[in-house]
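Continuing the series of single-chain predictions for the mutant panel. This is the parent chain; the variants come on the following pages.
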Amino acid sequence: MKHGRTVLVVDDEPTVLDGLRLTLEADGYAVRIAGSVQTALSLVAQADLQAAIVDLMLPDGDGIALTRELKKRDPSVEVIIVTAYGSVRKAMEATKGAGAFYVLEKPFDPDEVLGLVKNALEHRKLVAENSDLRRRLAEQSADSEILSAAPSMRRVMETVTSVADADANVLIVGESGTGKELIANALHERSRRCEGPWIKINCAALPKELIESELFGHTKGSFTGATAEKVGLLEEAHRGSLLLDEITEMPIDLQAKLLRVLEERVVRRIGGTKAVSVDFRLISSTNRNAELAVREGQLRQDLYFRINTVTIQVPPLRERPDDVPLLVRAFLERYAAKHDRRVDGIEPEAYRRLLAYPWPGNVRELQNAIEHAVLVMRGKQITLADLPEALQRTVAEGGAASIAPSEVPAGSLEEIERASILKALETTRWNKQAAAALLGLRRPTLYSKMRKHGIPQRPSWRRSRARPLAPARFSPAARNEAGATGSARQPGVTGAAGAVGSACGACCGSNRAGARRGPDCLRSGSECARATGARPGPASRGRCAPAGW
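Parent structure:
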């Protein structure tokens, strides 16, 4: 087949069915035909359809209802409604209410049908491409909000990636302020439902009566104050995702009603009898131990099993201290721009407190602390006095281990950035692509920042191992000189070798001539030679050898 596309034709007139089938098959389409709604739906379950041509009036229903059902089962299917002259207005309404692509009036020309089908499939392709582009942009946006260099958070994001495109219910567990909502956002924005509604409700923020009305909706007059009909959030989330934040705080009797919705996929508004079909992906979160909540009777066990098809555990900030420098820098830049303040950096003592503090409120507390400091700072750098009171107390009072000044980077933004890049590189074993992803950067940007901060492209442990130096050979005069002066210059190394060894050690961090450069030495062999007065040794690049070797 030329197109590799399947078109469903539904009409109760055999001549119309045969004519459309022959026309479409002649142009390379696979065609399925049906004379009723029931037959059409049975064919839909068996075939992968891309488009449908549906008659408005059918013996066991109408084309509008069938169009809605087709779009419900697969929103990407394009439907062309065929109608007689007298029903054009009704059919035109269907293009808005049911999602039909076009209304074709009888009688029609075969070429017109082919043109419409072609346009419908082109439209379908463009919608899919646009959806894919928006999804990728949403993924980048979601990832850019989640800054972490910790292996535990990397595992969290790997789980998000693997389950986002499925419709499985997800339970996110973590302390308050760890970023559970950001994880939920990433799940929705990476999913097939990313263009659908994204509905959120905090179960702990509303009393029972209000949360039931918010979730299920109500009919007019169903209770005092219900002056109008209200659509609930369960209905609003149709074809999208629903986040139930702090689900363990939901009243037990309301949990039973929610469980019924998840099992039957229908909602009944308060005071109403009509069942409304719903299709949403449920994401739940809690800051409690869910299994303990089940044992204590705060969470129904059957609901717990229903909502935690996949559980994602978000680690607290105190278990990923390497993330603090990344988050500090990100929040500094964000709030300096938001409040139009100049921030040149953080003084060392204030920075030490930020690193040593246990952050019981996790990322949210750190975020608030940085914004507070940006707002109250008086100079160009954030000082200890600018931090919230909890951080101004001594480290011992705060309950965190002390950090020596030598272990803390200086407080400027540039030095924080350099420390963050080095930490990301160490975490990923110097995999530039992975490090860039952890930092939320493009790889070329990471390379540029590495050059800016003087960070080598390879770590010292990856530099090529040098072969042992060849034995030194001296002229007789040099040998005599070495014998006379060696012990005074360096123990164990004689003559000129001892002299240059000391100079080489000053450059390379070594204590003997010809030693490998230390891990912090960024100089090549020739640079080392210029610095020490020696020249690169004959055995390998980066070794120093005295003149005469």
